[in-house]
């Protein structure tokens, strides 16, 4: 069975100077695309659902079953963790119940003492079932699932205290933003990242907002201790661009396309799947996790 918790392969990435991808999924087609990419590249991965994506797809139970069944039916051999992205406390508990193998409890919007306390509780519950845990200090700019972060740099003392809760990997704000980066973005604060990793030597750091960060900055962050990079927006753009392009062609060539039965949604969505697979494969190459399964 290729489905595993993530702490071992994330730590292996940290120890050996590469990063694994935490790729968000939003539907059946993306899940297939991400799994195909991981298998083609022989890369360990986390497939993650935000709370909103899980709701859209029909709930955590369905997401877990979908990923699990696809891993089996597609003959996936690389390690795959089923991960909750930016979970609230109750959602984290639900994912523990349902059988996700990894989760992020995001208490970054709470006062640090509260964040630490709740993270500790989640770590206890999750580790009792062998589930890996990510937590966050500082905030990541932009908006995701209604959680709006101003993008505060993670205080070093908070990072140290959070690692002491027993978590397996730590998301830390270093100037990163969810969604597209504005033209006047300052770039990642690599000096601050170095201060953080010096304070928690050897501990895996998670970089959120991976879409649109220039490759050289991602690779510099990996050198300093980033071992998991989250990617969502790039897949969204790849999927919607490919399916929009297909729809434009369809409209222009309707009679011919109808003759080929290209109104079948399976055919309509195929270019989107291929585009997401390509985008994920490119990222795996940048992260250096190809052939690390
Ligand atoms: P992007 O959408 O910017 O790639 O960020 C994804 C992410 O960090 C999910 O937690």
From TrEMBL:
Per the UniProt entry, the Enzyme Commission number(s) are 4.1.2.13
GO MF assignments = fructose-bisphosphate aldolase activity; hydrolase activity
What are the record keywords, sorted? Hydrolase, Lyase, Metal-binding, Zinc
The record ties this protein, via Pfam families, to: F_bP_aldolase
Name the cofactor(s).
Answer: Zn(2+)
Please state the pathway this protein functions in, per its UniProt record.
Answer: Carbohydrate degradation
Task: Please tell me whether the keyword Transferase is annotated for this protein.
Answer: no
InterPro entries associated with the record:
Aldolase_TIM, Class_II_FBP_aldolase, FBA_II, Fruc_bis_ald_class-2
Instruction: Indicate yes or no for the key word Metal-binding.
Output: yes
- NCBIfam families reported for this sequence: cbbA, fruc_bis_ald, PRK07315.1
Q: What is this protein called?
A: Fructose-bisphosphate aldolase class II
Protein's organism: Streptococcus loxodontisalivarius
């Amino acid at each position: 069975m290729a489905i595993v918790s993530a702490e071992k392969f994330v730590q292996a990435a940290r120890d050996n100077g590469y990063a694994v991808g935490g790729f968000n999924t939003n539907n059946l087609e993306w899940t297939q695309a991400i799994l195909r990419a991981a298998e083609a590249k022989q890369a360990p991965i986390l497939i993650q659902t935000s709370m909103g994506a899980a709701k859209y797809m029909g709930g955590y139970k369905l997401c877990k079953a979908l990923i699990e069944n696809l891993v089996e039916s597609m003959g996936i051999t690389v390690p795959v963790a089923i991960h909750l992205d930016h979970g609230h406390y109750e959602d984290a508990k639900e994912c523990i119940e349902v059988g996700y193998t990894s989760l992020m409890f995001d208490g970054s919007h709470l006062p640090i003492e509260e964040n630490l306390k709740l993270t500790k509780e989640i770590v206890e519950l999750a580790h009792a079932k062998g589930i890996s845990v990510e937590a966050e200090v500082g905030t990541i700019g932009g908006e995701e699932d209604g959680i709006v972060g101003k993008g505060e740099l993670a205080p070093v003392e908070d990072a140290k205290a959070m690692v002491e809760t027993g978590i397996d990997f730590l998301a830390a704000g270093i100037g990163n933003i969810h969604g597209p980066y504005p033209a006047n973005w300052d770039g990642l604060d690599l000096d601050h990242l170095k201060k953080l990793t010096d304070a928690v030597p050897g501990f895996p750091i998670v970089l959120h907002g991976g879409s649109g960060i220039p490759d050289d900055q991602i690779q510099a962050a990996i050198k300093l201790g980033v071992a998991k990079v989250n990617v969502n927006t790039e897949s969204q753009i790849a999927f919607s661009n490919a399916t929009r392009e297909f729809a434009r062609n369809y409209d222009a060539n309707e009679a011919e396309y109808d003759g080929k039965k290209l109104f079948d949604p399976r055919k309509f969505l195929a270019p989107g799947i291929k585009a997401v697979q390509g985008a994920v494969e490119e990222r795996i190459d940048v992260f250096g996790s190809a052939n690390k399964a």
